[in-house]
Write a structure and sequence with these properties.
The structure is a single chain. This protein is an all-alpha fold. The protein has a domain of about 50 residues: Arc Repressor Mutant, subunit A. Helices cover about 55% and strands about 0% of the residues. It has 5 helices and no strands. It is globular, with a radius of gyration of 13 Å. InterPro entries: ELM2_dom, Homeodomain-like_sf, MIER/MTA, SANT/Myb, SANT_dom. This is MTA2 protein. One of its GO terms (molecular function) is DNA binding.
Amino acid sequence: SAPSSSHCPQFHAMDTLQRNGYDLARAMATLVPQGGPVLCRDEMEEWSASEAMLFEEALEKYGKDFNDIRQDFLPWKSLASIVQFYYMWKTTDRY
């Protein structure tokens, strides 16, 4: 049987993104409850300080174009991980 979306947030997120025609803002609005995302810390992939700095540099250059960020700055990270990191990072004082 297929894993339920609660056990596999990446699949759920990608599925939602697809259903919203890859409109990230619309997909996030359906995924993220009012008040921000509920991400379990243990679901977050570990990011090193240098990866976080690369991410911030990429964000400055590309805005929220996560495909370009991944391609040019963090090719070893999954797109889902980068998107997840962005929403966690937004809740920090570095934002």
